[in-house]
Design a protein that fits this description.
Elements (H helix, E strand, L loop, with lengths): L1 E5 L2 H4 L2 H14 L3 E4 L6 H12 L8 E5 L2 H7 L3 E4 L6 H4 L6 E6 L2 H9 L4 E4 L16 H10 L5 E3 L8 H7 L3 E4 L7
Parallel strand pairs: 1-2, 1-8, 2-3, 3-4, 4-5, 5-6, 6-7, 7-8
């Protein structure tokens, strides 16, 4: 099961607490960390990613930067996570070898992500969560299963996923789980 930690420094009270949370999760063996601090100016984001890249990472977790391939490349991060309807992953490949994930909100978007060269897709929202309400009602386990079967790339479940329902996501065919609150404890 892949474990994909998506960051939110505001929920933790700032950048220092976020770096501490990432360090704890790296020690616990998460597989990937998406630095999703969309509101940070490029220089501050670069400094944050560099600080994360300097953390002990015995499990060799991959660090991805949300939407900013330039920052990922400058900081030596492993990849970039693209929002749905973003630049095609195939165009990102022109910048160099980056691990590329794509946010998807439908089975068609998962198929398109694969066709466009993504390495994995994050499918949401699976369950109800206020943070994903703008993307419509929860897709549910059945739709997650359809998305996972629609592509050969790994599909991760996001949106309301927690320790109690993660197994349902895996049973439906998800390669793993993604989230903020399920990884980001104090």
């Amino acid at each position: 099961m892949l474990r994909y930690y998506i960051t939110d420094r505001h929920a933790l009270g700032g950048t220092r607490a976020l770096v501490d949370s990432i360090a704890r999760n790296l020690a616990r063996g998460v597989d990937m960390v998406q630095i999703r601090e969309k509101d940070l100016p490029a220089l501050e984001l670069l400094e944050l990613v560099r600080a994360v890249m300097a953390l002990p990472n015995l499990g060799h977790a991959k660090v991805l930067v949300n939407g900013r391939a330039d920052v990922a490349l400058c900081a030596g991060a492993h990849g970039v996570h693209l929002p749905s309807r973003s630049i095609a992953p195939s165009r990102m490949r022109e910048l160099g070898r980056l691990l590329i994930g794509v946010s998807c909100h439908s089975v068609a978007e998962v198929r398109a992500a694969q066709e466009e060269g993504a390495d994995f897709a994050v499918f949401s929202p699976v369950f109800h969560t206020s943070s994903k309400a703008a993307f419509g009602p929860p897709q549910g386990i059945e739709r997650l299963g359809e998305a996972a079967r629609a592509a050969d790339i790994p599909v991760l479940a996001l949106g309301g996923v927690n320790k109690a329902n993660a197994a349902l996501c895996l049973e439906a065919g998800a390669a793993g789980v993604a989230g903020i609150s399920m990884f980001q404890d104090r």
